[in-house]
Write a structure and sequence with these properties.
By secondary structure, the chain is α/β, with parallel strands linked by helices. It has nine helices and 14 strands. The relative contact order is 0.08.
């Protein structure tokens, strides 16, 4: 069932509609500011896939703090296997009974307004409980905005350990790239990492960075790293160097090249092949 840009009589109206579908497996809910919903409750014994999205129209005003008060998305679906979350406007986000959850895509969940200070225990507990509820998944995508939230929040509340996670796709900007090693500490058994390096302007890619600390997954489990939008600038070359020189069991470094000239690409490749490799099995693959 796909419910897109609808207006509801009340919160109970939507809750009743969902609960009246006794064999519902896949639900996509695309909300808008004027949908008249304060609290979204999804209770289903059969649901396996759920997507929640919060869209803004051109004429919609921003949602102020008063309008957000008491708002929330509450999901109780014990057979849920996949969640795509694109709503960071609701005040509360709660997943209960996620025992079957295996894959999540965190596009927009929290933003800087959700960063709680030390004394804001209810907000801190809500954020901590959300990440704890998804911590048993095996496959996860993390958007750049979610990484930004991690940067804001990590000092107060580090993420829990995702010990079952084997595949991770994550987007970094140049401003958040220095947090990569801290983020990877949350995934001690990671095997496959896909990095989207979302910066291409020469003034950004020529920035000098240095990655040093080595999280557990690099020395115990990581086998494949893919780097999207690889152009060979100093920042992206540093990321490639970091994984080649520090990953003990790395089998493949896959680089999705973005360069304008054949000679430039050849020179970048020669620099990469010259890097010392900690893993004797490591192959560098260029796409």
């Amino acid at each position: 069932m796909k419910l897109e840009h609808n207006v509801y009589g009340s919160d109970a109206c939507l809750e009743s509609l969902i609960s009246s579908c006794p064999v519902l497996e896949d639900l996509s809910l695309v909300r808008m500011v004027t949908d008249h919903l304060k609290v979204v409750r999804v209770c289903s014994q059969t649901l396996t896939r759920f997507n929640v999205d919060y869209m803004f129209g051109e004429d919609d005003d921003y949602v102020d703090d008063y309008e957000k008060q008491g708002s929330g998305v509450f999901v109780d679906a014990p057979r849920l296997e996949y969640v795509k979350w694109q709503d960071d406007m609701s005040e509360s986000k709660v997943l209960t009974n996620p025992a079957s959850l295996a894959k999540v895509n965190l596009v927009y969940v929290f933003n800087e307004s959700d960063v709680a200070d030390v004394v804001d225990l209810p907000r801190r507990n809500m954020v901590r409980n959300f990440f704890t509820s998804i911590s048993r998944v095996s496959d996860m995508k993390i958007s750049g905005s979610t990484v930004e939230f991690f940067c804001y929040n990590v000092e107060h509340d580090p993420w829990p350990k995702f010990r079952n996670l084997s595949c991770l796709k994550v987007t970094f900007t140049l401003l958040t790239l220095d947090m990569m090693t801290k983020l990877l500490k949350s995934f001690p058994n990671l095997k496959h990492l896909i990095l989207v390096l979302d910066f291409d302007h020469p003034s950004e890619d020529n920035e000098l960075i240095r990655l040093s600390s080595v999280p557990r997954c690099l020395v115990s489990s990581l086998e494949c790293v893919e780097i999207k939008y690889f152009s060979g600038g100093p920042a992206k070359m540093e990321v490639a160097r970091y994984f080649v020189e520090n990953s003990a069991f790395l089998k493949k470094l896959v680089l999705h090249f973005r360069c304008s000239m054949l000679q430039e690409g050849f020179n970048i490749l020669m620099d990469l092949l010259a890097l010392p490799r900690r893993s004797s099995q490591c192959r560098i693959i260029v796409c």
